[in-house]
Amino acid sequence: MLTLLEPGIELGLIPYRYRFTRYQISDLAVDMQAGFIFQERIAIPIARVQNVTLSAGPLLQWQHLTKVTVATASTSHSIDGLELADAERLREQIMRLAQEARHDQA
After folding, report:
1. pTM for this entry
2. β-strand 51-55 against 40-45: which pairing, if any?
3. Is 66 left (phi over 0), alpha (psi -120 to 50) or beta?
């Protein structure tokens, strides 16, 4: 049986959900952590990054937030709930580091 939340409750959870997402960018990896009770930690090697995209559905747009998706050849991971200016800077930083890493390997 599928249960749906009331629209007001679901919209109220948006800021709460994004408070528990952390990320850190280094020359070697994009480290992400999400969750409060059940935490998930992911490290994506910079040299494996193929693409970084920005997207925002209606609920994120309503909150003036953007989702950054980091894609590799086999998978993709997202950092949700960033302001557009921060998301654009993050995208540029990751893509620059990925290009430098590929250049260094050649």
Report:
1. 0.75
2. unpaired
3. beta
